[in-house]
Amino acid sequence: MSDLPAAPEDAGLLAPGADAAGRALAAIEAKAPLIMVLGGAGTGKTTFLHELRKAPRGRQVVLAPTGVAALQAGGQTIHSFFGIPPRLQNPDEVKPRAQVRRLLKKLDRVVIDEISMVRADLLDAVDISLRIARDNSEPFGGVQMVLVGDFLQLPPVVPYAEQEMLGRMGYEGPFAFHAKALDGREVTGVPFTFVHRQTDRAFIAMLDALRRGRGAREAAEALNEACVRPHREGTQPVLLTPTNARADAYNARGLAALSDEGREFGGLLKGEFGLEGDRLPVAEKLVLKRGARVMALRNDPARRWVNGSVGTVTGLGPHSALVKLDSGPSVEIEAFTWERIRYGWDEPGGRLEAQVVGTYTQLPLAPAWALTMHKAQGLTLTDVRIDFADGAFAPGQAYVALSRARTLEGLSLVRAITGRDVRVDRRVAEFVERFEG
């Protein structure tokens, strides 16, 4: 891949955030063939995606590497959209089905969210699929590609058995920027560098040091000095931990300690709603009790709460829960329906359609004594406590956890951050350094 353009001179940790979104939309409208929208936590990437979905500027699809990420982005998984099996493939094995080919011929743009979790071989399979379907030898068959995410957050999953094989296939690494389809290509890079989530310059600098791996030891020492303590009085934080097992154990203990009999809410699955190995957005059997700590997992259309709002259950109805939000009033939260979509082409109408192929209906609430760091990605939390347990097991995991907090005052640590918690892949750090400047 060719050298990326440097960030504008006025870009920095506290540069005007709206400018980056404007540059990204302008690049899309100017039909730049390959656009990367990359930035750290809380820099407005999700807001940019929402804006792009509201006014799509042509026939586009929004895709993501996992089922949960696709639900959050309001799109489809890459594997299901292209019909690519979730395994290594030789280039000559990539053969899009006839139904997929018809759809790919109509596309103007492919938007991929959470690009940090997309493997290089998968992005190459996307490239080959588009070239074949459109009978066009240009990269990605001439379709505009918009790649959104942060390579310094969660990395792609590469089973041990496949790591050596990727090397033998000629890949320098597993990340999307190692894809052969990007080799030597001109990239329009739009760094999102203005942090909206935090306002404390010192805290922002600490998080940036941990994200990039530059000055990480000093940043960790400063965070340890400020945050290894009991959580501030009068609040009950969400506890973040690396594994599902540890988060589930915290939540089970919290629920068992409540004397209320509680109520079980059953989720309703219809049609095709498999998440390809991911968990459902909310448990199919959700047990709630009065006094339970919960987190909302969807935005309220009336804007009384947002995805990530935390509160305490104060009442239970047959199909709803009354929740006293930590940040506001008591609200009644009723069942929500998640839609699994599949893109298709409406021949009579001559337009791209997002067809609902399955639904899942359940209260959009999860126990919130604890969450995994992975599940917390994208959330903003007022009060968060972090238990690193035996250590973060993936590069970027510690940064994802710490950057959920709005303020240092609302952040506490069960134990001190150590070197084994702060892991940065040097290949990624060097790439982001060139990208962000």
TrEMBL record:
<feature type="domain" description="DNA helicase Pif1-like DEAD-box helicase">
    <location>
        <begin position="27"/>
        <end position="164"/>
    </location>
</feature>
<dbReference type="GO" id="GO:0003678">
    <property type="term" value="F:DNA helicase activity"/>
</dbReference>
<dbReference type="InterPro" id="IPR010285">
    <property type="entry name" value="DNA_helicase_pif1-like_DEAD"/>
</dbReference>
<dbReference type="GO" id="GO:0000723">
    <property type="term" value="P:telomere maintenance"/>
</dbReference>
<dbReference type="InterPro" id="IPR051055">
    <property type="entry name" value="PIF1_helicase"/>
</dbReference>
<dbReference type="InterPro" id="IPR027417">
    <property type="entry name" value="P-loop_NTPase"/>
</dbReference>
<protein>
    <submittedName>
        <fullName>ATP-dependent exoDNAse (Exonuclease V) alpha subunit</fullName>
    </submittedName>
</protein>
<dbReference type="Pfam" id="PF05970">
    <property type="entry name" value="PIF1"/>
</dbReference>
<dbReference type="GO" id="GO:0006281">
    <property type="term" value="P:DNA repair"/>
</dbReference>
